[in-house]
Amino acid sequence: MQKIMLAHGGGGQEMNDLINGLIFKTFNNEILSQNNDSAILNLSGKLAFSTDSFVVSPIKFAGGDIGKIAVCGTVNDLAMVGAKPKYLSCALIIEEGLDIAELKEILESIKSSADIARVSIVCGDTKVVSKGSCDKIFINTSGVGQIIKEAKVENLKIGAKILLSGDVGRHGAVILASRNELRLQSDLQSDCKPLNSVIEALFKAGIEPFSMRDATRGGLSAVLNEWAKACGYDIKINEENIAVSDEVMGICEMLGFEPYELANEGTFVLAIDPKDEIKALEILREFDSNANTIGEILDSNKGNVIIQNSYGASRFMEPPKGELLPRIC
Amino acid sequence: MDLINSFRDKDKILALSKIIKQRSKKPLNIMEICGGHTHSIMKFGLPQLVGENINFIHGPGCPVCIMPRSRIDEAIAIAGIEGVIFCTLADMMRVPGSKGSLAQLRAGGADIRALYSPLDVISIAQENPDKKVVFFAIGFETTTPMSAVVVEQAINLGLKNLFVHINHVTVPAPVRAIMSDKDVKIDAFLGPSHVSVITGSAIYEELADEFGTPIAVSGFEPLDLMDSILNLVNQHENGTHKVYNEYARVVSNQGNLKAKELINKYLEPCDFEWRGLGVIPMSGMKLRDEFGMLDARKHFNVEVGESKESKACICGEILRGKAKPYDCKVFGKVCNPQNPIGSCMVSGEGACAAYYKYTKRG
């Protein structure tokens, strides 16, 4: 089996063969094939620009892989500020010894995810590092998009309804379950997917969310706490309205985690005007039946997130802290 | 049967809430021995459902919280030795010793691993024959059998590079120590559930008689806890002090006899220093002398000097049931989950961590 060698990053024939024979061939588009030092783009108006690095382990998991997540992550960051994602860069840091067949699979996953999200990969970079310097492959993607309707944290206001686009914790739970030390058997799939289509559908229906945020690392809890801190008002959440799959709940209960703190890669939170709530929910549910209104911003300026359970008892939903460690007993 | 949602049934919880409030006439101080119960009580907001007469007091049942700084200092000293792979369970990584935590030592380059299962040390030892692998074993009766299995497997496989640092403790001893303190006012106990799976519920009968306090061995789910609280309220109002096994779906009267046999084969009781409670005779476990070749304390024989607790921290008072987390001056300020001063703030099962996470002010 052919493997990546340091020579594939050395700037010589092997590197050219890898880039032209595999990477360019997979990502093929007009801008990339011009092969300039920099991609020349046709953009106008207000733009969004975002970057993210992906170091997920294992690199393949139920419902996705590092390539899919590298595209979805940046596409979703652009979509969350109300932009239509257009172009992505893709930088690969590859560990010596990676099977070329495995790299090919990742590149194809990047390509198919980019096609679904309707973005082009227009520039990139490839580095090969010696064995042990990285974990198989790290990917950085940057992206630009055209702003359609600007959604910003500063728009958050008292009375805004908080909606959630799907169930929570699936990506984090899948990664936990697939790690060698746990060896859990599960049919659970990551929620990893691009979110630009659902955002565009909301805009098309005339809905302009005050703010949106994909609930990635730190999960729902991190997003809500960032919002509460940013706007200075309390956010009240109704726990009964947050969808959590039985599998995610089972993993959380076993290890002592909160599903609200686990990562998502295709689920987002939006704050909207109460008059748009019903219409927005209708659209969100066309994409995911678990979408729901989960709470609202209160006229109380302490900046806490308060979660009320079905028994009527309330507690704080604290932001996640430190590394996720399982309970002892 | 749905093992999660069935025990979180809204209608049943609210019905129990109503009955508990109706029947609870006298003030009732309930100590939850187990940190997992503290966590559940705060997570599900149970103090809001049981009425003002019931006061929950956190007990000494979190294995991380009760660990004295001297043992953590020993762990850090051993983990810092060249050629050692030091393995422990989760939260132990973050507990501050006199000179930092295991997590800080790991960031400095030491090979320290947080395990999901104690048995992982067996494969780590097999895969690293040129290294000395140390398992820092902690916990109450719940986790002790797994450590006994590690010892048994190490012996059966003839592993010469695996050592265990035993820090196991038992439940009845600290309960007796707390109840012997005249300043402590506890009327009833929630008995630990996972511990009782191993020990059986019968071990609490002597305690209930000795101190005249009812004990309910309870599961962790809100319905388990509400049912147990109702039983304790009823007993308190009626003046009885029986052991009630609410968690009978997994806890038997005599417990797991095979596990107990395994523990007795490899371990024996010893005196143990508890954080905040001092040395309690025969409250801990150690390796039997014939298995001393596996004992990390004997093999490495590290000297750590005097280990002092932080003066500002009142973890000791909290573990004795004399103070609540928010009685501590540093709680939520200098001491928080990102910068724990005391061990009660470190573990997810610790009283301070649970109070901070769910209520901040209690």
From TrEMBL, chain A:
Sorted alphabetically, which InterPro entries does this protein's record hold? HypE, PurM-like_C_dom, PurM-like_C_sf, PurM-like_N, PurM-like_N_sf
Q: According to the lineage, what is the superkingdom?
A: Bacteria
Short name of any one Pfam family annotated for the protein = AIRS_C
Ranges for domain PurM-like N-terminal? 36-146
Q: Which CDD domains match?
A: HypE
Q: Which residue intervals define the domain PurM-like C-terminal in the entry?
A: 158-307
Q: Which SUPFAM superfamilies match?
A: PurM C-terminal domain-like, PurM N-terminal domain-like
Family membership, please give it.
Belongs to the HypE family.
Q: What is this protein called?
A: Hydrogenase expression/formation protein HypE
Q: State the organism named in the record.
A: Campylobacter vicugnae
The encoding gene is hypE
UniProtKB/TrEMBL annotation, chain B:
Q: Which domain of life is it from?
A: Bacteria
Q: Where are the transmembrane segments?
A: none
Per UniProt, the keywords (alphabetical) are:
Iron, Metal-binding
Q: What name has this protein been given in UniProt?
A: Hydrogenase formation protein HypD
**Which InterPro entries is this protein grouped with?**
Hyd_form_HypD, HypD_1, HypD_2_sf
What family is this?
Belongs to the HypD family.
